[in-house]
From TrEMBL:
Keyword Membrane belongs to the record: no
Source taxon at top rank: Eukaryota
Keyword annotations of the record: Cytoplasm, Nucleus, Repeat, RNA-binding
Family: Belongs to the PDCD4 family.
Ranges of compositional bias, category Basic residues: 98-107
Subcellular locations according to the entry: Cytoplasm; Nucleus
Protein name per its UniProtKB record: Programmed cell death protein 4
PROSITE patterns in alphabetical order: MI
Transmembrane segments: none
Bias kind Low complexity: ranges: 115-126
Biased composition (Gly residues): 154-165
Length: 510
């Protein structure tokens, strides 16, 4: 029997191991032990059983190396395989099958759903996303640029690190899923607003005090209104006039004037007339404490009340409502002061614009020039240097003191006697020694006179000589320095030596 001879060693194929393909299974025939007879009998029985099974299950085809009738044609096919006599068609199919397996192994894990493979008949087949891949290949496939894939740019050429996306790309609004457990139907139409907590009394004073003090520097009431709108002052806004007046009592007259303007501008936008009345009620109640720091507080509070009535932010009946009901001496003095000031106007309907004076840097230049001119004329009549100095300081315009120097020198040039000359020299000397007028303001005043002396000389023929003598006296008194004196212009005199006469002096009659 040929099979027996093959088992005993006469027809060995492929060394020590032989394979027999039949059906869906694959059996391996090996030599087991040194007894050849026992081994040959076992192998013979096993091969015969496989041949019998293959003939019975010929209809059950599989996807193994040989499919269909080529693999299960009969016993001859199996004998040829065992004896090593392979047909040419079988070898070709085996090569194609091995090539297809190599292509499948070549595709990486990241390209498992996009690679191409070759079928058993040699056609190119697009593999689906479910094609299994080797976990071992996933483990060792770490390089992203290993030459695998289709070679297309990522994300269509847009996106990535430092890129916003393709030009014209519009992102859709993310819609909330209704089936989401955290879904809230009220959340889709809600609008968020910034909530500012209301200020208490302590926080109100700490926040508003810097705003009022800054207002004393710039004088812009609109900016104060904008800053107050950002604060949630709530019901405590009636404390704003009281806080502003309390700070103004410790300041200058210009600060009190600015406070009156601030209250007038804020009434109607930030404050109401009722808030102003409530604030002045608290001021009258706290006058005994305010007097300790500011002895003139009753007088100033009365002027604030009169100015508020004149500006129309406080009713006239406010003062009448306190008649016969005030026990505090300071509150009664404040109300009496307000009544007197309002009686000076026509029925209290006229505005009291100058209750705090006409000084301050917020005043127009024309008004300041008039005030300085009146100050000098009153000084020439009274001769009181101290009063003139006090009035100049009350104007609160240190940057405009050069106007007083200019007006004083011009009055000296236009005066006919020596009285004005001596009094103005005394006034300038006093203002210089008391440091009311600085060197810079003194220099600017004299420079203005030097520039306008040609025009002044048209009206005053001896203006040059008088100016030169006055500047020399000021230099001797220490009012001006050497530089100011040297810049004093002098009128050109006639020549007493003729250039064409050989240097001879001309007669005195000339």
């Amino acid at each position: 029997m040929d099979l027996a001879k093959f088992v005993k060693g006469e027809g060995q194929v492929g060394g020590e191991e032989t394979q027999a393909r039949a059906g869906t299974g694959r059996g391996r025939l090996q030599r087991r032990g040194p007894n050849p007879e026992h081994t040959s009998i076992s192998l013979t029985m096993e091969i015969e059983n496989q041949i019998t099974n293959n003939s019975i299950e010929a209809d059950n085809l599989s996807d193994s190396l040989f499919s269909g009738d080529d693999e299960h044609a009969g016993v001859e096919e199996l004998k040829n395989e065992i004896n090593g006599t392979w047909p040419v068609s079988s070898l070709t199919e085996a090569q194609l099958h091995a090539k297809a397996k190599r292509r499948l192994r070549k595709n990486s894990s990241r390209d498992s759903g996009r690679g191409d493979s070759v079928s058993d008949n040699g056609d190119v087949v697009r593999l689906g996303a479910g094609t299994p891949t080797s976990p071992k290949q996933k483990l060792f496939d770490r390089k992203s640029r290993s030459g695998k894939g289709r070679g297309l740019p990522k994300k269509g050429g847009a996106g990535g690190k430092g890129v916003w996306g393709t030009p014209g790309q519009v992102y859709d609004v993310e819609e909330v899923d209704i089936k989401d457990p955290n879904y809230d139907e009220d959340q889709e139409t809600c609008v968020y607003e910034t909530t500012v907590l209301p200020l208490d009394e302590k926080a109100f004073e700490k926040t508003v005090t810097p705003i009022v003090q800054e207002y004393f520097e710039h004088g812009d009431s609109n900016e104060v209104a904008e800053m107050l709108k950002d604060l949630n002052i709530g019901e405590i806004k009636c404390g704003l006039p009281m806080l502003a007046v309390s700070l103004a009592l410790e300041g200058k007259a210009s600060h009190r004037e600015m406070t009156s303007k601030l209250l007038s501008d804020l009434c109607g936008t930030v404050l109401s007339p009722q808030d102003v009345e409530t604030s002045f009620d608290k001021l009258l109640q706290e006058l005994p404490e305010l007097v300790l720091d500011t002895p003139t507080a009753p007088k100033f509070v009365g002027q604030f009340i009169a100015r508020a009535v004149g500006d129309g932010i406080l009713s006239r009946d406010y003062i009448d409502s306190y008649k016969g009901t005030v026990d505090c001496v300071h509150a009664r003095a404040a109300l009496d002061r307000a009544t007197v000031l309002l009686s000076l106007t026509i029925g209290g309907k006229k505005r009291i614009d100058h209750v705090w004076g006409s000084g301050g840097g917020q005043q127009p230049v024309k008004n300041l020039v008039k005030e300085i001119d009146m100050l000098l004329k009153e000084y020439l009549l009274s001769g009181d240097v101290t009063e003139a100095e006090r009035c100049l300081q009350e104007l609160e315009v240190p940057h405009f003191h050069h106007e007083l120097v200019y007006e004083a020198v011009v009055m000296v040039l236009e005066a006919s006697g020596d009285t004005t000359y001596k009094m103005m020299l005394k006034l300038l000397e006093s203002l210089w020694k008391s440091a009311v007028i600085t060197l810079d303001q003194m220099k600017r005043g004299y420079d203005r006179v030097y520039r306008e002396i040609p025009d002044i000389n048209l009206d005053v023929p001896h203006a040059y000589s008088v100016l030169e003598r006055f500047v020399d006296d000021c230099f001797q008194a220490g009012i001006v320095n050497k530089q100011i004196r040297d810049f004093c212009p002098s009128r050109g005199r006639k020549r007493f030596v003729s250039e064409g006469d050989g240097g001879r002096l001309k007669p005195e009659s000339y």
